[in-house]
Amino acid sequence: MIDLETTGFSPRQHDRIAEVAVVLTDTAGRVQDEWCTLVNPERDLGPQHVHGISAADVSLAPTFAVVAPHLARLLEGRVIVAHNASFDTRFLRAEFGRVGLPVGIDPLACLCTMRLAGTFLPSAPRGLAICCELAGVVHDGAHSALGDARATAGLLEHYLGLDDADPLWAQAHEASATHSWPGLAVPDGFSPVLRGASRPTGHWLSGLSDRLDRVPFPVEADDYLALLDLALLDRYVSFTERGALLTAAEEAGLGRAQVESLHRGYLDALARVALEDGMLSDAEVADLHEVAGQLGMDADDVAAAVERAASGPVLATLPDAGAHPRSEASGAVGTGGDDGVGEADALGRAARGAALGGAVATVAARPRFALARGDEIVLTGAMTRPRDEWEREARTAGLAPWPNVTKRTRVVIAADPDSLSGKARTARRYGIPVVSEGVLEELLRRVEVTRVR
Hints:
The chain contains 17 helices and 9 strands. It is elongated and about 85 Å long. It has 3 domains: 2-178, 2-Layer Sandwich (Nucleotidyltransferase, domain 5); 204-357, no CATH class; 376-452, BRCT domain (Rossmann fold). It starts with a strand and ends with a helix. A hairpin with a 5-residue loop joins strand 2 (17-25) and strand 3. It has helices at residues 48-51, 55-58, 64-75, 85-98, 113-120, 128-135, 145-162, 167-178, 222-231, 239-251, 256-274, 282-294, 299-310, 343-357, 387-396, 422-430, 440-452; strands spanning 2-6, 17-25, 31-38, 80-82, 110-112, 376-380, 400-401, 409-414, 434-436. Helices cover 43% and strands 10% of the residues. With 453 residues, it is α/β, with parallel strands linked by helices.
């Protein structure tokens, strides 16, 4: 039994396999073994709302060139059974051909449970789910390769139970026994990658070592903070962005304690901006909690950030005892500055900052990302709304939707912020933010306000 999840419907349109599952059965249809892996399609994943595969997961998966030897070995001497077998075999031929292994799949060595439903489930329509329902077969995990392959195995066992003497079974077995697959050496060290592989077991900051800090503090962390601004544009630090942030921290010589301090300072900066009008709206509170969650902080950290912001400028408290506290608001170092902050007051504020949430780096107010009329934006992936609708709204707001990413592109809106599309890869190379579809509506509202003024 085999089932595939793909980026679309046609390999001729450059669609690729994104997941493959094989369920091995005996001649009576009883399950013997099963195998499944995601496959990196090296392109956008297509309708992710259908198959539910994340770009972050497939970025960790092997390409089909790596999967091919394992798959060929599993299929050797077996009858290929699939629901809508012509679809699966079409993709298999294309994928094997793409890696230089043209394989002819004998139609006689294949069985299609969708076509066989006409014989064994005369009233059934074509869909796998309804065929399983009529046959009393459990179908969990619909639109996952392994879930659908298991369901297909259940259908085959049901058909065989109704009539295991039908000549077509023997014909298929005879054809599969004489059909040869390419003899490929199976490389060592291959491990299937399953859905959820990118899901962290702890917070993504666990990727930073707990070593002693190697650089003085406060540190010039502009590059890291600029990257964090882009990552939090849609209030979601994607898998790709996590990796980039960890790399930036490592390159700057930052230990985990320093990064956590920068994060607290970042949250403080947002709280100060939110409190500029003297009050916090429900939306602003929710936003602070959302950012805190993405940065590995909790409700207590939000409360501490708000308290620090409400009580005025607070000096940095430092993980490195030899560094000097510095007030962002006054420009003072150590014993005071233009605003007349005395040493006692400074130390008191520093101590309060430490009591409220540990070391806190002073971070300047973060500029709010906004688009101006004429800015170029690029959309990529299968959106939940038709792309032409988004582009029409963008033009109405004064933006310029563009078909390809250039260095003039301000932002790329992706169905999945970890998208593997060529547009997303180019954007990352140019340092252009790649954000989720959900942020586009907010960006369009800001352009409208700017345009009206």
